Amino acid sequence: MNLNSIRPVKGKSLIETPSSFVVFDIETTGLDSFENEIIEIGALKVKDGKVVDSFDHLIKPNHPISDFITNLTGITNEMVENAESIEEVLNQFINFIGDSILMGHNVNFDINFVYDKAEKHNNYNLTNDFIDTLRLARKLLPEMPHHRLSDLADYYNIDKTGHHRALKDVEMTLEVYNHLVEEILNQYGNLDNFKKQIYKNSYDNFSDLTPQTDKIDKNNLFYDKNIAITGNFVNFPRKEAVQKILNLGGHYNDKVTEATDYVVEGSKKSRFQKGDKSTKQLQAEKLISEGANIKILNEDEFMKIINEPSLS
What residue stretch is flagged as signal peptide (predicted)? Predict the structure, then answer.
């Protein structure tokens, strides 16, 4: 299912460190934004680094709150008995946030719920861009085994009293965000350097690899051939696959062109895959149909060549 067709005008996830935004959190009756309900929304409006307004509303659901959710959040059926409806609270929340950048921890969850409920009950599309402190934390603190809000609160010695109520989680998220901004400055000096590192790591960069031997068999199939890789391998990481190509005297190419001799397909799907075929495979097939002499190899065929490389 294409999520863009479900939420076609959903905002973008940003890597930024603004001083003005709305940080928010919701409590729900479950994990499914279509089947379950929002029972609380909490938010803080931050302008130039200072909290200037707050939002804290319970919502009356159409179905009873389960004991599990009550035990998790502390929100009881009695507490929401006289609360406002989802339509009323969302209308107020939409006015509260305006066109502000939104922020939250694992905020895609909250964004999706609000998007779907606002579309259903208020005939409104949530288009605000957003920042996810979970995404930032994973990039900045890779040594942590988990990056839940409670884990980060422990890491930064943030008081967790009242955790799993919306406004308290918002306050914790704001504190975590401020610490993460400090992490960016301490580790990278500025935001631009941090973003460059993220985007650098988003793409394969094998330019530092060189052959690990000076005795290359010129009779092997890959010698002096241009070879592209698509997908990931069952037998070893992509980087190791590239190293094996270089050790056989081949040339690794990031793109598929008319000069490409082989396209090697890993058994695991590429993150850029379109349907059953990757972008590189589709490009190779297009060039082949136009007369290019490109051979497409699967992982098993690739393994045979690197294990028995010689033509003689």
Answer: none
